Amino acid sequence: xxxxxxxxxxxxxxxxxxxxxxxxxxxxxxxxxxxxxxxxxxxxxxxxxxxxxxxxxxxxxxxxxxxxxxxxxxxxxxxxxxxxxxxxxxxxxxxxxxxxxxxxxxxxxxxxxxxxxxxxxxxxxxxxxxxxxxxxxxxxxxxxxxxxxxxxxxxxxxxxxxxxxxxxxxxxxxxxxxxxxxxxxxxxxxxxxxxxxxxxxxxxxxxxxxxxxxxxxxxxxxxxxxxxxxxxxxxxxxxxxxxxxxxxxxxxxxxxxxxxxxxxxxxxx
Length: 269
Ligand code: DGL
Description:
The chain is α/β, with parallel strands linked by helices. It folds into two domains: 5-93 and 208-261, Rossmann fold (3-Layer(aba) Sandwich), CATH 3.40.50; 95-206, 3-Layer(aba) Sandwich (Rossmann fold). Helices cover 43% and strands 16% of the residues. The protein contains eleven helices and ten strands. It has helices at 15-24, 46-61, 73-86, 95-105, 117-122, 124-132, 146-151, 158-167, 190-197, 207-220, 241-252; strands at 5-9, 30-34, 67-70, 91-92, 110-115, 137-142, 178-181, 202-204, 234-237, 259-261. Strand 7, helix 9 and strand 8 (202-204) form a beta-alpha-beta unit. Helix 2 (46-61) packs across helix 3 (73-86). The longest helix has 16 residues, at 46-61. It starts with a strand and ends in an 8-residue tail after the last strand.
């Protein structure tokens, strides 16, 4: 089935998941949409996040996707069940895979999680982790400054280093051995985060396990692309294709990317 896999996020964050899908599933086509115009989703009401997630889903359904990845933790926490209940294709979120990867990695059952305000308030990670291991101790923290740093292309410089070091102070000597990047924007800050946390803490990017789940579901639903045609990815943003394209080509290592503008929904605020 050469129909694309749909990937959605509030902005460029979902590219961290798309990159893993491209690596683990090189025969598949991706159709990506980032709702950059309405980013960040983190501080928004869950009801509004559900509506925006449905807007994105409907847009990608018009591009004939065969499976949808909600590559945004905030949207997964607020809307995964709602979207699953309302569309006919398989839908994958990022929180369960992230929790699974953390439980596999931890040796002392002490796990740190960072995410947006929406994700942390929802307790979705704590619930998913506890469901897998009743003994797990979870220390979670909202880091509302991180996604805007990434969206403004400032994920490598001294400002990013300062903000990350300050924000992650509560995890110093906290005893955690595993740390979940519970927002898909955060893997772009991963080298800085790892540097702050030190070598004894294993940092988890849920994108890796999410791509494995996608792979499994493609088999389960007999959806794998068996055609020999070269990959044809498409990238859409509701914001500036130029800014999105700059971050995307840096992150994906694709020098000549075409990013298309998408108009979805009406509500902006
Ligand atoms: N990338 C999104 C996530 O994984 C959130 C960024 C935002 O606040 O929009 O939660």
